[in-house]
Amino acid sequence: MKHGFLDKYSDLSSPLHSLSATTKVIVFLVLIIVCVTTAPTAYFSFAGYLAFLMVCLAVSRVPVIHVLRRSLVVVPFLAMAALSIPFFSRAAEGRNAITAAHPGLIVFQGIALKSFVSVCSLILLSAITPFPHFLSALRKLGTPRLLISLMSFTYRYLFLMVEEFERMVRARDARCYGGGWLWQTKVVGRMVGTFFVRSYERAERVYHAMTSRGFDGRVPVEDAQPMRLKDHLFVLPSVGFLVGCRIFLAPGWLF
Amino acid sequence: MKKVIEIESLHFTYPDGTVALRGITLDVLEGEKVALIGPNGAGKSTFLLHLNGIFRGDGSVRIDGLPVEKDNLKAIRQKVGMVFQNPDDQLFCPTVFDDVAFGPRNLGLDHDEIERRVSESLAAVGMEGSVKKSPFRLSFGERKRVAIATVLALRPSVLVIDEPTANLDPRSRRATIALLRDLHDTQVIATHDLALASELCSRIILLDSGQKVADAPAAKILEDNTLLQAHGLV
Fold it and tell me: Residues of B with CB below 8 A from A159's CB?
């Protein structure tokens, strides 16, 4: 199997890995919420968030390069956001006391910082939490069962589907695939169609196998690990620090 | 001897009009290991799906004397342990533990009993070391074993297995046959593997075009080369 697992490195052992998944979900959720509500020019707040992330990263022993490489997924979205810069009106200028830059640039910089911090948080979270634990933590925090089931199935069958598609691609290439682009798009279209039908049939077989074992519409999830003393010792200072960064290091209380 | 499975003139037609079963009547006694053989498209898998009410055709199907009807489905599915051909269809949970615990959880058993059944079932198939792994990190042969464990955890009265040796390498195939020999008394095994049928089963039922063509002691059917040839099995 060539493709990496979603929760690569989640089986390392470190103080962070040993915490309950619920703890980690809470802390990183708080980080993302305070981050996206911070004003784009509150550089000290962002520095605080990044410092927090870097400390966690160092403690977790997850390679920095892993997080950086995966954080590249935000680039296409940032490019889309960048396209919109010229369309911000200059009329909003001067509203911000710190800088007189083009308002579009300020918005863009906000989007860039926030998406980078948020995505890095998620990558780090997935690298220190095995996915099944992540799901039971979400369940404990009140996520609807249907969403949990969807995520659980996606995690289970994603690799299988990637492999199946790879097999199709290999079988196609083995028969001297080539020709003009019109022909190629036609072939790809048919492959996607076939893939859809196969997935649909697989879903039916999986459902049969589930009902054979008494499935009644609810996917049972294992109980989340309980939060112990060390979890509270991590949650309280972390949340305090992050909220502190949000409130005291930003210019102005709110946006 | 007690009848575990009783089927009377079972007919089934798919929604697209394909006639799959044309009047099948048979019994399986407690403790019997029965092989269900037949060419591709004979109706073997369709037939198996009737045993726990996933498909419901015309005719009567009884498990342990209990008719397969809407109200009995939960009890029926506990009694009939159905192992599907492709373990990837059967194993859908993030960990092996969750998958084996899926059936017992659906039965509403308490936590200790669930853990007991999981470790007992995994031990029975020799996979006790994989409790925490994800199914997709196991080899095909291992997934097949775990798939068997997932239904053992229901403590069924009959084990129904679709193609247990398909796609296995010779060593895993041998291991699976040995496993099935040691496991559980009553088994219905759909297979193309005649060697498996002769080694494991006392009785063979030959299905073709949705009909029961022959039903006799294994040795007798396996000797009848003309019969096997006529139905594309040798």
Answer: 136
Give tens-digit pLDDT for B19-72: 999 999 999 999 999 999 999 989 999 999 999 998 999 999 999 999 999 888
Strand partners, B21: B12
B209: left (phi over 0), alpha (psi -120 to 50) or beta: left
A167 touches B at CB < 8 Å: no
Percent of chain A with pLDDT over 90: 21
Report A:89-148 residues touching B (Cβ under 8 A). 131-132, 135
Instruction: Quote the distance between the C-alpha of residue B145 and its chain's center.
Output: 13
Give the CA count within 13 Å in the CB-facing half-sphere of B96.
28
DSSP sequence for B135-192: GGGS-HHHHHHHHHHHHHTT--SEEEEE-TTTT--HHHHHHHHHHHHHS-S-EEEE-S
> Which residues 204-223 in chain A show a CB within 8 A of chain B?
205-206, 208-216, 220-222
* Closest-CA residue to B35 (of B214, B225, B223, B226): B214
The ipTM, to two decimals, is 0.75
Radius of gyration, CA atoms only, chain A: 23
CA distances from B55 to A27, B3, B24, B207 (A): 48, 21, 14, 18
Q: Which residues of A touch B82 (CB under 8 A)?
A: 209, 212
Report how many Cβ contacts below 8 Å link chain A to chain B.
Answer: 78
The per-residue pLDDT of chain A, averaged, comes to: 83
Is the pLDDT confidence value at B74 over 80? yes
Please judge whether B97 and A206 are an interchain contact, meaning their C-beta atoms are less than 8 angstroms apart. no
- Please answer whether residues B225 and B211 qualify as being in contact, where contact means their C-beta atoms are separated by less than 8 angstroms: no
Could you tell me the residue ranges of all domains in chain B?
3-230
B136 closest CB neighbour out of A160, A209, A222: A160
B3-230: CATH, from 3.40.50.10860, 3.40.50.300, 3.30.365.10, 3.20.20.450: 3.40.50.300
Q: Which residues of A touch B150 (CB under 8 A)?
A: 213
Q: What is the mean pLDDT of chain B?
A: 92
